[in-house]
C-alpha cells in the first residue's frame, strides 16, 4: 500500500490545477487528512494564503472576491448545509468543491439549487476519507470507538453512524488503491459482521460500478476483526520507538507536543514524527528501545562531524558552500535535537515509573505460568510508590485475565489494594474500562 503518497497526490491535484490566490476550507476531519501529508509551507507554495474551518468561516461575512475558495470536506449532511448557506451569499470569486468520499445524488441537487449566482466552478469526489499516518497505516479518528465493541446496549442511531463512518472510510481506502477486496469477518463479533456486510453491500451492489477495477490474480483481503479478542496486548507497555513515544508522551496525527517536556521556542513546541519526512525515524520507528540509544549516538556523531566541517570556513568558496548546504544543516540540527529530546524524556519516564520491572511482570503474566509468583510480584509492585496508577491498574487487569477463575480470593485482595492506593479504583473495578486504550 502507498496510502500517504495517494492522499498527498489527491491534495496536490486539488491545489495545483487552480491557479491564483486561494483559501482552503476544511472540516474538523479533513483538516487531519490534509495535515499529515501537507505542511503549512507547502500550502503557501501552492498559493494557499488562508486555511479556515467550514463552520467558522460561516460566521464571517467579509467579502474576499480576490480569493478562490477550495472546499475539501466530508460529504456529510451537516457540511452540505454549511455549503448551501455559503453559496446563497458567496464571499469568494470562485468556488471549487471537493469531497473526500462518495457524494449522494440528492446532495448534488441541493448544491446545484443553492448556486443561484453560478459561482461553483466544479464539484469532484477525491477519495481521501482517511488519515494516512504512514504508507501502511490509517485511522478514521472516531472518538470513543471502543464503546461500540462493548457488550452493553448502545444507542442504535449512534451505532449506525459509527458503522457508516467505518464503511465509508474503508470504501475510500480501496477506491484510492483501486481495488475491490474479498471481505471476511470474525463470526463471533456482531459489530465485525455488521461492518463486513455493509461494506460488501456498498462495494458489490450499491456502488459496484465505482469498484469495477481490473481483476488481479490474487484479490486483496479485507479482514474485519474485533479488538476484544485480544485484551492482553493493549495492557502491555511497549518497547519500540514509535509505540513508546505514543504511549509515554503522545502522538496525534504524526505530531508530538513537547511543551510538557521542557522549554522550547514557540515554533518548536510541536515536533513532527513522520516516516515520510524523517529518514532516521523511518529507519528506527520499530527498533527496540535499547537499540535506539546506540542509533541516536551515531546520529549525534554524524551531526558533530558536519558541524565541525562547517566551522572551518576560510574562503569565499567555503562560505558559499555552507550557505548552499545551510537548509540541510538546519534540518539535520532539528532532527538531532528532536530525537535526543524524545529519547531523553522517555528514558527519564522509564526510570521514574520503574517500567523495566513493570514490563517484566507484565510479560510473565502474559506468557508464563505460576499463579503464586505472579500474585507476589503484582503485590510488590502495587506497594511500590514509584508505580503509576495506570501501571497498577494494568497489572491487576492482566492478573485478572490470567487467574480470575484460579484465584478469585487473591484477585479480590488485589482489587482492594488497588482501591486503597487510589480512590478512583473501587473494589470490583470494571475491567472493560481499559479497553479504550
From TrEMBL:
The alphabetical list of record keywords is:
Membrane, Protein transport, Transport
Q: Is Repressor one of the keywords? A: no
Annotated compartments:
Endomembrane system
- The UniProt record lists the keyword Protein transport: yes
SUPFAM superfamilies given in the database record = Sec1/munc18-like (SM) proteins
Tell me the protein family, please: Belongs to the STXBP/unc-18/SEC1 family.
**Mind telling me which PANTHER family this protein's record contains?**
VESICLE PROTEIN SORTING-ASSOCIATED (PTHR11679)
- Indicate what this protein is called per its UniProt record: Vacuolar protein sorting-associated protein
Q: Which organism is it from?
A: Medicago truncatula (Barrel medic)
